[in-house]
Specification:
disordered N terminus, single chain, mainly alpha
Length: 209
């Protein structure tokens, strides 16, 4: 018996969308030609999407700029760091937009903005908008004690905050327990919270300098 797969019709593109896609197609063709000349296609085929975007960006930068080799290495290093951080956030559960964060917490978008400005939510800026790491949420609320720790960390970068919250371990009896894991497991119990507060104050003050 033959089966038929029914797919929803694709929505037609707007003129602006079609124009951007055409422009990107032309640019991609030029970049692929440049990669071919550099004999980099085989390497590109094995890359993740994030790595490929990074390579395309650096190839375009090389084509149109007269930057020094030192500046290009610096930008390449920054791009490497950005790719690793994006992959780290993905491993931690991904991110969501402000509208989704508001939905999760049952608050308005303005409340999300206010909490972000007050260092009571963690967000990273990507593509011109804030993205909220999902690891900070516990169901429909923020992990207990999470906002207090964010405040203690102060105005350091979201990347550094994420490192403190997910990749630094200082509980001797549970050496692989991160700050976020401790908050999930023990809540704001005084034993663990006292140590987390102390470490957050030290980390925030040292990193700020």
């Amino acid at each position: 018996m033959n089966t038929m797969t029914i797919t929803e019709p694709r929505k037609p593109l707007s003129d602006d969308q079609a124009a951007i896609i055409e422009r990107m197609n032309m640019l991609s063709a030029e970049l692929v030609a440049a990669l071919t000349q550099k004999k980099s296609l085989t390497r590109a085929l094995k890359m993740t999407d994030s790595e490929l975007v990074k390579l395309m960006f650096e190839t375009q930068l090389d084509r149109v700029s007269e930057m020094s080799a030192r500046d290009k290495r610096r930008i390449s290093h920054l791009n490497d760091s950005a790719v690793r951080f994006a992959e780290r956030l993905n491993d931690l559960g991904g991110t969501c937009r402000a509208s989704k964060a508001a939905e999760i917490l049952g608050v308005s978008r303005q409340t999300i903005n206010n909490r972000l400005k007050a260092n009571k939510l963690l967000a990273v800026k990507a593509g011109g908008e804030f993205k909220f790491p999902l690891f900070q949420f516990d169901g429909n609320k923020l992990i207990a004690g999470f906002d207090e720790i964010l405040e203690l960390l102060g105005d350091i970068s979201p990347v550094t905050k994420t490192s403190f919250l997910t990749a630094i371990f200082f509980f001797d009896n549970e050496p692989q327990l991160s700050v976020t894991d401790a908050l999930r497991k023990y809540g704001t119990s005084e034993e663990h919270m006292t140590e987390i507060r102390r470490q957050a104050k030290l980390f925030g003050s040292q990193t700020a300098h």
